[in-house]
Structure formats: structure tokens, C-alpha cells
User: Fold this.
Amino acid sequence: MNWYVLYTASRAEKQVELHLKAEGVEVFLPLHLSPRKWSDRIKMVEVPLFSSYIFVKTSDEKLRTLPAITGISRIVFYNGKPAIVRDNEIEIIKKFLDQARGKECRFALGDEVEIIGGPMKNIHGKIKKSRDGYLILSLGQIGISVKVKLDQVIKK
Assistant:
């Protein structure tokens, strides 16, 4: 049993995940939160980390039958064989996503940060202080400091 990569139809990753799970296949669809803007609001939405790609852990024989599932376009090949992703690479992706979701997020003085949503979107800053559940960010581009409460970090 190896981890393989499947290419899906555009925006079909979540539906493909459901179909594969129904078939009894172990699936990994890395999702992250991304700001989406509507005319009246900005909302954090879960989107695939790798658009149109999904990982499956299965046998080579079972893998060959999966393109028949609705939403799967093809198996990803490398050097004429289905591309195999090592277990440790899947673990690295999972760890990265956990850190990005704030589960293991640690900040240190001087860390560079970027605001990804709201009126200060794309403004860069440095962490000046960290205590009592707050960060003090120095936003040099606009010459101010901002106090941010850590429990306001969006978590899954």
C-alpha cells in the first residue's frame, strides 16, 4: 500500500473525497482556510492546498480502477509509473497544515508576519512582544503597532 496522487476535475476534490471514502479507500485531501470576499463580507473558507489533486493510500491494482469514479480525471504518473508519495511527505504536509491552523503555532520576537484579510490585507509586520495571549505587531509600512488577541486566530 502506497500513497498515490489523483488529478480531479476542477473544484471536485471534496466530492471525489466522499466517493473514494464510500469505496473504502484511504484518502488525504489537504485543506486550508483562505479568505474569500463577497460584496458584503469576507469569510474564511476551506479550500484544497493543491487544486485538483488528492492523495490516496491503496494498492496498485485498486488504484487502476479509481479513474472510473466520477470526478477523477486521471492518475498522476512519474517516469511512466503512478507517482508514489512517501509516508513522511504526507506527514510533513499534515504537520504544516496543523501549524498553519494554529494548533502548534508559535511566534517569536522578530518573526515576519503578513495580514491576510481585512482592511490591512497584505501589510507586513514584525512581532515586537508576546504575552498574556496577545501579540504586538509593528507594521512598518504604515507606521503603527497593533495588539492582536491570539484566541482570535481562526481554527478549524
In short: The CA atoms of residues 30 and 94 lie 7 Å apart. The two ends are 29 Å apart (CA to CA).
